[in-house]
Batch of 3 targets.
Target 1
Amino acid sequence: MKKYLMSGLTVLAMAFVAASCSSDDVYDASRSKVQDQYDAAFIRTFGEPASNQDWGFGTLYTNYTRSTAFTRAIQPTFNFPSDADPSKFLDDVPAGIELLTSGIGRANHYIDETYEGDVNVWGMGTEAGGWQDKSGGILYVKGNCDFSNRSFYFGGNSELYLVKGATLTLGENNGSGNLQSGTMIYIAEGAKLIANGVLHLNNGLHIYNHGTIETPQLSTNNTSVLYNVGTVTVENRISVENTLSVIVNDGTITAADLNTAGSGKFENNNKVTISGTTFVNSNENTWVNNGQYHTGNFIYYAASDEVINNCKLTVDEDFGINLADNDGNGNFKMDAGSSVVTKNFYGGGNWSGTYAGTWCDAQGGPFYIYMGAGSVFKVTGTATMNASKENYGIYGPTDGSSYDGVSFAVFEAKNVVMGKENQGFEVTYGGNLAVVAENHFANGNDGREDHPFIDFKGNARIYAPGFTSGKPAITIQSSECNPGFNGGGNIPVNYDVRIIAEDLSATESSDFDFNDVVFDVHFTSNTAAIVTLRAAGGTLPLRFMRNDELEVHKLFGYGDNTSVMINTDATARGYQTDPEADHKEPVEFAIESGLDRDTNKGNDIIIEVKKNGVWYEITAVKGKPAAKLAVAPQFPWVMEKVPMTSVYDRFSGWVQNPDVRWY
């Protein structure tokens, strides 16, 4: 940080001495035509200000943490089922139930290790009465019941209870197809179901597990449900297949691979470990993670809108995403405070590989990732971008929400490379998104200026060599859902307020970006402060404390050249050609007296803009249209030519009602 020194003179000595001003400096304190035009444009854009709107100057923001204003965990449209009633999980066989002596027909009995025959319980039917009565059979299992070399046929519309401490072992050939449709299986805590063959849930079969399930392979199909509160261990693949089959995990699941197909639905609320690959490969899939999900690879190869990460997804190797070429159709959603950590990321097409024996060849390009406030997507290796079409890419929040005072999402990678050389729209970065990389491919175009390699939407910004230097001044605390992010940046915790301002030139909504000057204030006493200048997005002369030596472009080292826009990504966005202007170091100077912190909270730090040879003060009058705002020191200012409301869509609501949380 550069500290500004002025030949031993203090700012105060210059601030109120008229002789220090040049001859054309005429201070006009009236509400001039310039001010009236600005006010009219402000009201057209944001509406009439509330009479009690103090523009943020009613408080100081030291150690500021705003209450979160984000939505609860993102919910899919599919309504996942609940666990079975607790009364279904038994400590013992109910009183009065007798030991099964013949395993043929219906049963309302129990078996234990003394039972030596086969089991053939049936209950299928569609009409009441006779052999077609659909009431089904009921069988209780206690002790150690091993059917590895015996037949176990359990018919539809029946109920099977494994009481506490029971073990039911099914053979390689009789465990999968012989659990029939409509059956309800309840496994109590401390009980175990071992299937030596494929455990196949089909045609409405439901298993509610509070104990342990062990099997080499597990599949659900055709409206079947596995609801796990205990432990499920699968040696090979879990398949969640067609016709609204469902797996809900409230316990622990371990498997080699997990595949969702057709309209299969999967929800994790606790812990899942997949050593191989997780596939999401149908437009009708629902995959939701509300807990800890760890997988070797994550391949999202469809156009489902129901792929949602609300907590932590860890991928050891490859995260690949390639969706349908329909704008807005298919996306990966991340809720506020959530995270993805992966070694490699493939965004869009032109990637291929064999995952769990399945060959994936992604030749298309589209992909969307929507990230909530305070979320982190971290690529420890290489991120390859190949969206290939306009708008596709990665977006931070656009609704003005915040998470622990952070309104940005962070996409962090070691290296970000092109997936296909010389192609427009490799990626779009949008919303409140900070992209942080050790290396990032340069922007440019494929020969058409309207086909940029990197398309910026909203307030997105890249922190990498050749873009903005350093890291964003964002700190995201680590949690069970997030590894955290420590940008550090240039914002010490002892700043009291950040002030952002317009230079009275805005005439329509697209002009209001409030970055013509951005500075932080640290009060050293009630009457003195240190000012740290962060950005100057305006192209008119703009000065502090009526002092020409404190003109913002001059402070940044540009002398009398006021045409340069500083630290607002103007070069990266194509509005100027000075790349150094996008990453200037902050400048610090002192105001040694004359302020009233307790009363004005920084509103008396005078800022003026020079228009047509006249200096006009930039004001924030209670209940009137404002050209400057007080915000928290962590507030990410809006980038060049980005409308305030496209980044903070609650801003207009806040103008009209100061109780609205807008960031």
Target 2
Amino acid sequence: MLRHLARCSPFVGVRALNTLARNPGNFEPLTPLSWIDRAALVWEDSEAIRHGEQSMTWKEVRDRSVKLASGLTAQFGVGRGDVVQVMLANTPHMFEAHYGVPMSGATLGSVNTRLNAKEVAYVLRHSESKVLIVDTEFSSVAKGALEILKAEGVATPRVIEACDHHGRGDAANENRLDSDAIEGEYEDLLARGSVDFAWVRPEHEFDAIGLNYTSGTTGQPKGVVLHHRGAYLTALGNTLTFGGMPAESTRYLWTLPMFHCNGWNFPYTLAAIGGTSVCLREVDGASIGNAIVEHAVTHLCGAPIIVDRMIDFAASEGTTYDPPVKMMVAAAPPPESTLKKAADAGIALTHVYGLTETYGPATTCEWRTKWSDESPEKQAVLRSRQGVKYPTGDGATVLDPETMEEVPRDGKTLGEIMFRGNMVMKGYYKNPEATAEAFENGWFHSGDLGVLHPDGYMQIKDRSKDIVISGGENISSIEVENVLCKHPGLSGAAVVARPSKQWGETPCAFVTVDQAAVREGVEVPTEAEVIAFAKTDLAFKAPKTVVFLEELPYNNNGKVQKVVLREQAKAMGDHV
């Protein structure tokens, strides 16, 4: 009887279930690279890329990507453990690199095309790049970076030039790279590759697929190492989050730089659904608006500054985007006034939040159907929140960094937004100290301060370094900015701390005038009027100083450079 009970014990069954082994027939490492083979099969003759008059099918893009992998392997011996840096615009070359480089076994490094020569040299040196593929428009910067490395006695990467007829680089450009520094042209590299190349799958889904460098506002930029599993899950999360991305009929406009968090992994998302990439080199309001109409764009992504440009273009043309275009917007939360203007212009916004370390978007303000019955003002407030974790994420919440406990869901108690799980980076390249600090207590620390609302949705209140501490009170710069942007005469605002002998710090607002509103008869406000306007909502939190600028200073990723504004505020001296 005892032997019979042992055979029937549920614990024996559990052990047996967990002893079944992995084998090639039931387990393969997840990688987004697999989607391009599927796209070439299912959507063989469907348009994958549109670049001006150039159009390529998914079969063509797949074959060119494989040839790129083959060419890199054959000509340069590229393989596992190597880094191939690309300095490319939003072009077919850049899209293909997202597949071709890791298909060779190497890790893709995406250089920010807005960096200067010294900054590019740092990236090439730190990443020990084996190959650099550079758009001719950025040749002069690349040339300067290579000269810096040579002067330092550092080995330089092998260089391939990519010529794009829509770019500003051409054969007559005196700043082009010297002929002896160039190993060849991109199309020649592909010509030497083979479409039958057996592309390299990752040995493990935790293998590196990407290496992206942070903006480095507080020191040297850090190299963020991303893995295949995270890229795969982020790309899938995009399809589940972005208000419906129907297969084959999705037409995605590239306003977000593909070098930024690998374009939030949308190069992989588009292969998963067979969508079309509409490439765009010049990202201004007219170019965006005209491209949306000409190419029947359905989706795009970008920072709030892109939303502003789209709103301004629609206003100048006296029209709206019809049918509405769907847009993911990240960076700082858009002011409630911008969210309302966007809705009126036919821009359906999905607010997301994340960092380079989380592959781009890792939370979303998931829209609830019942919220559609709320007033436009209430809807704008709801949309401004960072929301909840991506459906393919594991952990994202607001924790007390001292106790590592979740903060109360009262919409008031500040904590730090933290992440954990498969959509978080491997770590910082060659920087174990920074990696350990970032993952202290088993969570990735974002450095962003936020609250949890009663419904569990997160909302950023500030970066930890951007909180203004005035008379012992914490003042959220974002809260003040949101109120200022409601003023009919202002188009933008950024708030930083100004030293004060009496209060320690006081809020100092840098604002821009809404020129479109002025043309329609709105008067340009004075400093006193702006402060009085803010006081109706903020009382003691209202700015004590207002500085008018023609334009706020933005960094290479479209974020306001508050470090620059803090220096300006400091130079003003103490506020009384």
Target 3
Amino acid sequence: MEEQYNIKIPFGQLRLGKIVFYDLNRGMARVELSNSTEMAGDPLTVSITIPVGVFSNDGIFVGSLSKINTPVVVARGEGTNWYFVSYVASRNNSVKLPDLKEGELLIQSSSTNKISLDTSNNISIGSDYSSIHIDTKKGSINSNFKQNLSFTEASREVSGIIKRDLKPLNGFPDSLKLTSDKYDGNLSEIALDPKSATSLSFSGKSKNPPFIEKREIIYEFAYSSNIKDDLTESQLYKKSGLKSNEYSLTDRRLSRSDTLSLSLVSPNYLMETVKGTVVDVFGNILDINRFPIPIGSKDLTLKEDKSGNIKDDVFNLIRAAERKSIAYHFEINARKDLSSKAGVTLPNIDSKADYARNRSRFFIDIDKEGQLKMNVPSSSETGNISLLTRYENSSSFIDEDKDNPNKLILNQDRLDIFHDSFAKENGDITIKDETGVATPKDRIGNLNIKHGTPYHNIVGLNSFVTFSPELSVQFLDFQHNNQIDLMSFPTIANIASPEIIISGTKANAGGRSGSLNFDGSIELNVGANTVDRQSIWLDTAGSLIAMLGRDKNNVSAALSLDGDLVVQIGGNGITEDSRFSKSNNSYRSGALDIRVMNEGFTVTIIRVDKTGVTIATPGKLSMKARDIDLMAEGTIRINGDNVFIQDRLHHIFPPTSS
């Protein structure tokens, strides 16, 4: 029947109609023509190719499926073929034409989802309320979306209202929990009272504003490489391979709401940063020890009681508790030496041995009162040793291209960064590996850089704890009492080892947590705690080695103590560190050794040790007091060239035997 009417309709005539059906398999649409019926009263319909805006055989396409009953204009072509001419844009009750502006190109699917380009260099994507605005003339991008989610091969970033999976959707595929918009809609917002419903404005008797976070996780390798722990990954490189595990529970690390879960069982999650309020995966607001703050409990809730009232001071109580929450968190999933005689082994999470150093990670947590908590792991025996060097790129000092500092020179060894040491005398501790010296050469001195400090030679500190023949006390030799022999005092061969090995079975470079260099002075002011009025707790597992310079007044240390000075020397050592299990860590007696260097390489010594007290000086020893009592269970000897008692000279001649 259609063909009969097609013959009657003149060639090229335009007809108004509406789309009534799509045949997607054929790429065709059916159009019902207006004001045209058959003899039986049925409307006339014609077939056209589905109308689109732009189409090209190379894949370029602009278009959409218009809703059924969308008005169109069609025209008859050669034979019985019909073609789409245009849509009919009119302002009537059934068709809503958007508000158009002169010079604007508009693409929209609804009033809240559109793309606008105008002749004033503006591009807007979104709606009138939430959009990305690009000004190509000013070179600026502005976005006012409430939530910003980014998932790349390098990182995952969540910025907006804190949302957590409080009712885990075990039936939801893990593979979609990171990027799926449907999954995001099932997450719960975490608010001032995390146990109550979120309310941005006053609803009832209170409002419960949601917390925000800007959370980012950086991967070590591309996310899609699906890196497992080192034990699992190492098996993949063996011929036997590794059987895959089929787990039944949800994988927390594939979820966008996962947080605070860095561990070597999942080493590809290299570092994490959280700004705002730190909330764990179960929606708990955490204090600086990462322990849940009981907000939402009986006494700290915005919920109404049985009488329909909310406690008057509950808001202030919640805010006081919430001040303990973490506002900034940064953590690095620190790499560890997992090798052992049994091969690669993951850290035992149930072991506290060696202070659980093999589970230590670098982190900085700062709570909302500004209190800082920081942990710095120690290096492995083959880890880095920080050298005191300045850095220069090859382009800045290689004499080519007329001293052009911006030149790019591809050296034969492909070395770009060169070092020069500012340690005293290029350092005094040699760093070696299994083949020899393992440090770069100083580009200025052309010698291998050594480890050291800027102002003194640490190894040279040996002069403090040993005696050389040049040092003397210059005593006369009595027949009955030999001269004090400085060489008889206990000495230490090396206060600091002159050599460190960074590789192989004898590597001993470990146990280092940082190297801080300040070119200028530090002014440090430390307050006191409330409970004990104490300012600094210093607890070291090893010794303190210090060499102090002097100021213009020749002062090396000036201390003013408002209270007593209490010093204990000797006692029990540390027994929990397996690296030093062969050392004497039990109780031992101590010694106080004070040496004052005098003119002419002489030395004054005060030594207190297990033998007693020794004072030796090449100069005068003076004592003045209201009363002096000398008591001994043994012998008291007083000898000298001239001995005065009560200003009366007593000659000892001939010398008496002891």
